[in-house]
Design a protein that fits this description.
Pfam families: RlmL_1st, THUMP, UPF0020. The chain is an alpha/beta fold. The protein is built from 11 helices and 14 strands. Bound molecules: S-adenosylmethionine. The site of S-adenosylmethionine (SAM) has 19 residues, from helix 7.
Amino acid sequence: MGKYQLYTTMGVGFESVVAKELQAMGYQTRTENGRVFFEGEQKDIVKTNLWLRTADRVKILLKEFKATDFDTLFNQVYEIDWAELLPIDAKFPVKGRSVRSKLHSEPGIQSIVKKAIVNKMSDQYHRRGFLPENGNEYPLDIHINKDVARISLDTTGDSLFKRGYRIEHGGAPLKENFAAGLLKLTPYDGTHPLIDPMTGSGTLAIEAALIGKNIAPGSWRRFAFDGFDWFDSSIHQELLVEAKSEIKPLEQPIWASDIDQSILEIAKLNANNAGVLQDIYFKQVAVKDFATDLQNGVIIANPPYGKRLKDRESAENLYKQMGASLLKYDSFSQYYLVGDPAFEKFFGKKATKKRKLFNGNLRVDFYQYWAKKNDY
Ligand SMILES: C[S@@+](CC[C@H](N)C(=O)[O-])C[C@H]1O[C@@H](n2cnc3c(N)ncnc32)[C@H](O)[C@@H]1O
């Protein structure tokens, strides 16, 4: 089985986190803006889709070339041996993106690439007219950056944040891979307690339990590669069995509380779906009444954003309450994802470190308060 040029995509600011995840799995990596490259075989495609917690997608880089006009783009794409990749009935949506390049019309780029593939497949399969495109999906994308085109096959399908354990509800949950990325920015590894005092639908607590128990985050879903006809389908099953055998008991407690009992019920359903309900201690409690005997761990939360709170005053009050009841737990390192630049003032302490992030399109800060007394 051959080697593939592979890369992962991720949210802005999480490149180093994903690179570390890949390195911990034994891969050599090269990082670019929004992408981390590595090499691997089919087994590595399965492994990374199954185990990467912070990435969005894993893609195969099919070809990289310079293209400043549509003829070159067409010819370069036509040259690829498409029949080796796509069966005659393949559905192959093409996503196009162009940044700072001569070829800038994204719909134009998409349709030229599509046309080149259709023409090549028609020639290779000796078939005229339309291709049926009623089979399995092979998602392709063409990305042109400063006149360098990259054409890739997405092995993931639905983004990796869609773990498959979460039920839909109207709240403001963090994406699962974003929550995992935040946890990876803390020292949390399951060997110390973790507390989320504003847990909402439980994403941070559940992702922490998956990390602490060494549960593969992709355990509940299928991936685009499952539908590729040249992909060895036994590998996925094999690695799932292996992953199950590597699950370990949680060493230290995870606490998840919220003021709202109804959202806690959703959090419990999600935790149950993820197989970690018994590992998380859920409790209805307002942050101002929060108390714990636990020590030496991580407190992490994403309080409601200012604009979601009724007014300025209630945001300021909440941050004050958080400061009054959480700051005294100084054997914990504390991490708060907040979209309000005035957070530190009302919380009552300047952060040890702040990290600028984007939660979707929302510019937010990850305020980090490192513990004085423990080994974190
Ligand atoms: C932005 S949501 C958290 C989302 C969560 N991280 C998730 O992924 O589902 C903020 C949560 O803070 C809770 N909350 C608001 N005021 C609170 C308070 N005074 N004490 C405890 N929780 C509170 C809300 O009920 C809401 O569930």
